[in-house]
Request: fold
Amino acid sequence: MKQICFFLLLIFLISPSFGQKSTPSNKQYVIVKSTFDFLKQVNRYKANSFTKFLFSKAGYEVYLDNEELPEELYYNKCSALHVDVKDKSNLFATRNYIELVDCNGNLLYTSKLGASKLKDYERSYRESIRNAFSTIENLNLIYASFSSQKIENLTTENKTQELKKASEVKATEKPPLEVLDTTAKEKKTSTAYELSAQKSKTGYQLINSTNELVFEILTTSKKDVFIIKNKNGVLSNKGNHWLVEYYEDQLLITRKLQIKF
Reply:
């Protein structure tokens, strides 16, 4: 009874409310790789979807990394626990183990080996992965520890990112775009960097005043949201300006644009 009370108290303490996108969600998200390295194909033998099923059954909101993600998770994949399955099979048995990592690939937990001697590949991988999953002790506490550490480091990481972005702008003689300082007062729309949009097969090319390509953006199901090609980021309409957000060297870069379509 004391252990149950302690666990409930721990979950309560690590689940405060936070703002949008830049902070962890109250939901317990898990992202499973859609292609395990040893199988080399998306969801081969349904091993990936079966792994997703095991974590869903355990009470988590689970997605494969190639599936459409909810908005809060799309903008902050570091709020999810990431899952990979590794292989140590031999001629006599299928043998797998499960790794739990954060969004930067840091290893948080490794299960014990699960094994199967079934001849059918799909059934064999299912049994092996299920047996490996059954060796994960206190999964809820592992997730709670992951969430607690992520929340504790959030403020420090944000401050470090802002300082690094400011120093990068100063070191550049002619910064290509204006970097927004979230700690300062909002700049006027007229100071935003101006680009012209040229239609392409998959979206638009954003060109500056010297006719140089700055971004190539891809259309999505939302008319005011675009994916930035070759960057881990998006472009979205904020009414009187456009906001570009993408990651560079694991830092979130945010820039304000005026675009002529």
The CA atoms of residues 232 and 247 lie 6 Å apart.
